[in-house]
Structure formats: C-alpha cells, structure tokens
C-alpha cells in the first residue's frame, strides 16, 4: 500500500508483543515501515550493481535503516530511500559504506588523543630509548609525559581522534610557543615521539611532525656559558637573609633560604635538591646518596657534603624534630617539593642586585671555580654526575669506571674553604676552616 501518516498511526496501534509487522510502500520500491513492539523504523532494500567476482552472481540484497517516523515523514522517507537507491545505481554500496563509517567512528572514539596519551604513559617505562640503550629514568619519564600532555593541551586536540591530528595542529603548537624556543623544542620533541609510537601501533600512517620542515622546527638553544664568581655567590648567600626579612612581599621563608644556600654549597640540580629526603642523607659521614631513579641520567650517585652544607642540614634536622624520612625542603604551605623557582629568583634578584643568572649557573660556577684552583676537570665533571661528557665519553667511559672518591672529597673541601671564606668576608687562609667530615666507607 501507499504508506501515509494514517498508515503509520494505525500500524502503531496494531503492534503486539512478539510480533514484527513489515509494511512495504507501493509508491517507492524497496521502502518499508518495520513495526516492532517497542518502536518503528524506515528501511530501504536494494541490490548493489555488478556481479560477485568469486561467484559470478548478483550480490545479495542489502538493507539500510533510514530513521523513524519521528525523524522522517512518509514523503521524507521516500526521498531518503530514492537517494540510497541512486547511490547504489551509481556503483556505491551504501550499507557497506555505513558499516565502515560506524566502525571508523567507534575506532575514533576509542582512539582519542587523551586516551592514547594515557596508554603511552603506561607503555613508556618499558619502551627503549630512541638514542642509547636502556629505558628512561624516572625523572625523564616524568618530563616526557608532562611535555606530551602540555603539547596536546596547547593544540586543544584532547578529545579528537588521533587520525585527525594534522600538520596544521603541530604548526599551531610551534606558533604558540614561538617566544619560548626551549619550551617549543621540548614540547615538539615529546609530541613527535608520542606520534611515532602511535604510528608504530598502527593508529596513524604518518607522523605529522615529520611534515614540518627542518627549517621550521625548534632549534636547540645555545649552551649557556655564564657563571658566577665566588664573591657573587657570597652575595646571593647573604641575599637569602634579606629576602627572608622582606617575606611580606616575596613569601620567602626559612625553607627557601636554606634551599638556596644548599644549592650554593652543593653542585646539585635544583630538582634533585627539591626531592632530597632525609633517608638519603648520612649526617655522620657527610654524604648524600641518590639512587638511579632520582638522577637525571639514571646512574646512582654519591655526593660528599661540605661542612657549610652539613651545617644547614643539621640545623634543619634539629628544627624539624630529627625526622628519619620525608622531604628536607618541604613547601611551607603544601608540604610538597618546592616549585616556586621563579618567585624565589625574583626575591633573590631584588635582595642582591644581581640579575641574569639562572639556577643551573651554580653548577657551572662550581666546576669553573674549582678548575681555576687546580682541581682536575675529570674530577670536577664526575662531581656533576655527567655520564657522557668529554672527560668520560667513548672508550674511556666504557673502561674507566673509577669514581675517584678521595679526589672528589678533596675537591669538596677546597670548595668549602673558598665559599666559607667569601661568605665570612675574609681572605682565604684567614680564620678557621671547617673540613669535610671524613668518610667511613
């Protein structure tokens, strides 16, 4: 019969449990109204053009759901049915195309960027390094996943399918971070490694980062050569007291003072110092031991502590109730590792009048000053826990595994003498020098 609105209403009234009614339209061949106990749908049947290449016969009849009487009136259903049949006559297979589209949509929902970043984070600890051997250290893993997440957030593609991330999205990231070249390089590199993992997993065919020309990619920052003199370091030491006094504006407290002074005393990376915990310190033998999970290069490391640093630690240990574990320099408010490096530096700049320095300059200053006072470069370099520096690279780095602990301790005593003299405002050799505590190893 020719299906009308009255036909639809009557068919709905005639529905029964466990009964399926199909009404075919006399006006549009292939169009049918299917009535079930709980609903009604419009369908259209057709045969694809051509013959099956294997059987030589016509393909079986296909059926496509068009919608419901709530979405399509009888006339609209006929229009939609004629469109499907027209596509079939043109050589297409609408039913197959819809199945493919539905499957792709399901894959896209399962392969959103945010979801894959989470899977990548889980897989990364067991993934070999792209350069060198072994796997990433705990710190490197944290930095890698952090940069991937920030890159994705900057591009605003978290809820998009990974297959929809394009070269234009990567260019948008580089444009956004154009004024921060070092940040752009870290984010671009981490994003490219993530997308390469997606390619290896068969989720995309091409890594969009590879489409960015080499002249458009972030260039490595020029290595800094700036270092501070011993008088400059002494000025920063005294500036911590002034910054603490002016804490009403800078929120610079005793923990910040002790943290900065510790960094001035010991050639540690700033993050290593923020994560320093009491269980890794031996105040009796004046040593700080770091496992490979805590260092940048993944190698365990022992730091001999100078007496000036030891004094800071012992005073903090006493003031904190002599704890056996926990952070040495906890944030005053959150109790977590310090993160307010920019605010601390701003307070130090104001109190000291020195500008243009960075936290990493302290490590350069340490080895530079020691070299000027006769300490061998290989010894000073080992005290920075560098694995692939010129002094320990190549065949030498493979066969020479000595840590040269006695020489490191002697160098640290020399550093202690120089820094204490500068802090006390006297010429080296005047007054009493407190030597590094003897090791009991």
TrEMBL record:
It holds the Pfam family Arm-DNA-bind_3. Keywords: DNA integration, DNA recombination, DNA-binding. Residues 47-96 are annotated as: Disordered. Residues 111-199 form the Core-binding (CB) domain. Residues 84-96 have a biased composition (Basic and acidic residues). Residues 223-413 form the Tyr recombinase domain. Coiled coil: none annotated. Belongs to the 'phage' integrase family. This is Tyrosine-type recombinase/integrase.
